[in-house]
Amino acid sequence: MAAPTLRAGRRWLVSARRTAALPRLLVSQTRRQRHDQQPDARPTPVPPAAKGLLATQYQRGLFQEVFPPQPAEERLIDFLQAGRPPVTAYCGFDPTADSLHVGHLLAVLGLLHFQRAGHDVIALVGGATAQLGDPSGRTKAREALAAERVQEHARGLREGLQRLFQNHRELFWAADSRRLGSVRFLDNANWLESESVVSFLGEVGSHLRMGTLLSRQSCKARLSSPEGMGLAEFLYPALQAYDFLHLHRHYGCLIQLGGADQLGNIMSGYDLITKVTGEDVYGITVPLITSTTGDKLGKSAGNAVWLNRNRTSPFELYQFFVRQPDATVERYLKLFTFLSDLEIDHIMQIHAKEPEKWGPQKRLAAEVTKLVHGKKGLESAKRCTRALYYSDVDALESMSDEELQELFREAPYIELLLEPGTTVLDLCRKANAIADGPKGYRDITTGGVSINHIKETNPEAVLILGQHILSNGLSLLRIGKRNHYIIKWLQLPHEE
Fold first, then answer.
1. Average model confidence (pLDDT) for the chain?
2. In terms of pLDDT, which residue wins out, 7 or 255?
3. 294-300-306-308 Cα dihedral, nearest 10 degrees
């Protein structure tokens, strides 16, 4: 459904009396100027006074800032009140890798909350803009990506986004609930690559001011650096602004979501659309997720926790959230889950009485892993946790080859033929896990070898099906404390 008309002539549709009761989430003109000079500065939070999607997510910390200034923001609050026609919001994701990571997840959750409130959303893959690279928050240019590689990455991102929205619909949304908004998956290569340079500069270039673009801190820092700044990067905000204009024209898109470091680009989109169409659009930022040292999580920082299984397993994702300290876990429950404030309060109250159980961390990890990897992914993460940290042989026996290789990524994976009379010593030597001669023999007799979490001190013990070799045809061999070997046995005898 198209977005509602934004202006009646030039009059605002919110009365002064009603305005006084609305939350103040705005980015004022002063804040806008400050962002141009200090884009990472945090706004002073002002508690909202009204309920609704915008106010609720502001209170939970997911929505950080809203742009433009107060009058337009108050109309946005009115648009998002329950019972109003749906509006359309979008967020863009550049495919600089073939997977999203945890740093992207809050933007996706922002879209999901719009969808849960009955609004329509667009997940935009930047198949064209990724070839240029966003300069926001960067000290040097991104490594150039070939068009073929960008297309491959774009497919991976699209599949990851589709999986998140599908898992949400199937696992977090009751079928008999109110309307769940629609979702579209688009790629800006579909329109930017067919746009001629002359027509693009003629339409966009005449409306974006050089002074504004040059005044932004990210631009100023790069221009004064030894490496400087290329024209392609400098024009990135113009291309992102054009995306917003295109989506506004063709899909009635009213709102752009982005990380806190995207506010400058969102402002460029607002400037372009208001000048070209005379209509108002809006921007909402979500917080940046940082490591315990304060570094932004992401590919560029080298600390990304990926959402695709081939990069970060469900177990590794689960453990990332289980290891969150008490200082952040309540905030993360509000940011990363759909749990109600009442339920989160209850979880934290129990945690205060039983902190040793890590209840909030486990619930946080379970909710996020289920959203990212589905029920089977969550079951896999819990199974790997029991096998590794609780020496649970039953969990180990039920693990697949893939799970074992994910759990022990650095462990050699060895296929062996089981011969009659194979001993513990034979296994260790065939796996090249111990030294030849007396030293390797002593490693076993002194307790340095375990098979399936059971210590073996008799080198001559014959391997037994069901004990040393699990029913899934695997053995987990450990030498010392850290050296693991995954053994896949071939041509096992089958019981009649």
1. 83
2. 255
3. 170
